[in-house]
Amino acid sequence: MIHFRQLRDEASGAFSYLLGCGRSGHALLIDPVVTQAALYLGMLDELGLRLDWVLETHLHADRVSAADALREWTGAGVAVGADSGIADADHLLCDGDALGCGDLELAVLATPGHTPGCLSYLWGGRLFSGDCLLIGACGRLDEPGGDGPRLFDSVTRRLFVLPDETLVYPGRCRAGRRVSTIGEERETNPLFHGVTRDGFAARASDAEASPILAEALEANRHCGRRRATDFSCHSLIQGDKTCGS
Amino acid sequence: MIHFRQLRDEASGAFSYLLGCGRSGHALLIDPVVTQAALYLGMLDELGLRLDWVLETHLHADRVSAADALREWTGAGVAVGADSGIADADHLLCDGDALGCGDLELAVLATPGHTPGCLSYLWGGRLFSGDCLLIGACGRLDEPGGDGPRLFDSVTRRLFVLPDETLVYPGRCRAGRRVSTIGEERETNPLFHGVTRDGFAARASDAEASPILAEALEANRHCGRRRATDFSCHSLIQGDKTCGS
Questions:
Q1: Domain membership flag for residue A142
Q2: What is the pLDDT of residues B12-58, one digit of tens each?
Q3: Which DSSP state fits B33?
């Protein structure tokens, strides 16, 4: 039995993903949000799962990651892209690596452009594309290290070559949608369909983009760790504003 | 290894689904379209799969089913809803039944309303909802035996109680989309969200509905079998207009 949950942080629109192996009782979380940490812990407890890994797709600018908090509370390791600019991780991931727990194995794809260190994770027929490929859109290009042509190459050469049926689970909610497929995005995503590499950057603005929060970026460069004065388990679990995104 | 393909018939907008068990080499097809029969046979051959079952979600009115043709050419059985009004099937399915091949097992859910005998099939976290629940819509109510309150009950009491992450693979393409989730449909489908059972029928008209073709209905009442004068393997494989939808 494999457990799979798609979790939405209403404040930021971010999606996080819980994957658990019921046989072994091990689990991992992709892109958890600090204000939702209590939800993850409750869900892990309810499903009888132990958290092995927190995986980041990239350095998030719009909310604070729960990676450091979850590491502290559960003993999970934090795995991030080798080029992500995130310090204090337990494991650095590169293109072609595999990571997992129990019966779960995720393949790591380097998909830079939104940030220099963006990764996507492929698990069976499901792609966790972070902010590289969004549903009918892509991540903004004006975050630190953003690079339009690199993003275009990542999407068209690394992701659009996957089978049509591959499910696209993005890093952010757009227009209320939760899932798409590679076939649909290849055929209908207006930022890529019929667009050249040179013409891409001018199109790639996302009216629904989340804000860039300097405080979140600073915390996320250390796995979401906040300064001691801002941070306590109590405030996180209570959803205290000092830890909100 | 499980094979999964979502196949679109451009003429009618219908989706068909191929599910194959790579270990045992057995496969099944849901809602195949007669003009696409050569495509299915080529795909089965390419994947090294033998077709065990053709499953219909319901009596289709907008195109001719490939069930009878595939049965003739491959020896597959045809399974349909016991209340579907389809004659000459090899197996009749009821709510709560299970059907499959190799490592594949589908659960049968009776979801009447669009037609009296509509079935949905649940395979792991994937729901094949036929024309009962479409993406942001539902099937039309003016086909033979259509019943708005029954469709409303089917969707809200049988399908919306499935987990949020359950993938919805509908019987028809709408607005270019290929897949949704139960969570998204429960929250955003304008025909059901915030709508009462009594208020439903007035809303449930689908501007993108396919036409009702008397000739297709007649053929599909016998698993898609056409009169001998209209029908030959040659004309099907060539996509001859006499067999088109």
A1: yes
A2: 999 999 999 999 999 999 999 999 999 999 999 999 999 999 999 99
A3: B
